[in-house]
Amino acid sequence: MSDESKSYSFEYQRRVEFHETDLAGIVHFSNFYRYMETAEHEFMRSLGHPVHRQMAEAEIGWPRVSASCEFRKPARNDDILVIRVSIDEIRTRSVRYGFRFYLDPADAPIATGKVAVACVKFENGGISAVPIPDQIRSDLEAALAAAKS
Predict the structure, then answer these.
(1) What pLDDT does residue 8 have?
(2) pLDDT of residue 129
(3) What is the C-alpha to C-alpha distance for residues 25 and 106, in angstroms, rounded to an integer?
(4) Which of 23, 51, 56, 84 could lock onto 8 through a cystine, CB 3.0 to 4.6 A?
(5) Which residues are catalytic?
(6) Could you tell me the pTM of the whole model?
């Protein structure tokens, strides 16, 4: 199955704001990373899980361990971006997401991105990778399975 024909478990829309554009009138590339993070957070909220939460005595979070984005066509002020989030892989302590950005979902994406996040606990001033909690893992796996059907 090609990347273009994959089903997606979550779709997020947002309007491009003027302050997100550069002197050429197009969205500055750095904003696509912000859009990916916001879409990921909205996806996690849709599963009932805030990105940072208290679990037992520790706070759990999801820092980025890698991120990339490829740009094909510009987006401009007042455009509506459709951002599709897919789960590419669930590991013991991390999740890899794919992102596709559209101005018109019937057309090819204007940009594609990837983000890998690690599940960590913040405890006693330190940070360490931990296995993804069972309920979060279960909900992520259900979303992944739904996207494949």
Answers:
(1) 56
(2) 96
(3) 24
(4) 84
(5) 22
(6) 0.90
Q: Could you tell me if 21 and 77 are in contact, meaning their C-beta atoms sit under 8 angstroms apart? A: yes
Q: Assign 66 a pLDDT band (cuts: 50, 70, 90).
A: very high
pLDDT in tens, 41-64: 999 999 999 888 777 777 899 999
For the chain, list the domains and their CATH numbers. Answer: 3-148 (3.10.129.10)
Lookup: tokens for 5: 């024909």
54-58, 127-131, 142-146: the lowest-pLDDT one: 54-58
Cα–Cα dist 130/94, whole Å: 9
Q: Specify whether the CB–CB gap between 125 and 58 falls below 8 A.
A: no
Helical H segments across 47-130, by residue range: none
d(CA 40, CA 33): 11
Contacting residues for 141 by C-beta, under 8 A, at least 6 apart: 90
Q: Map tokens 């899980």 to a residue.
A: 49
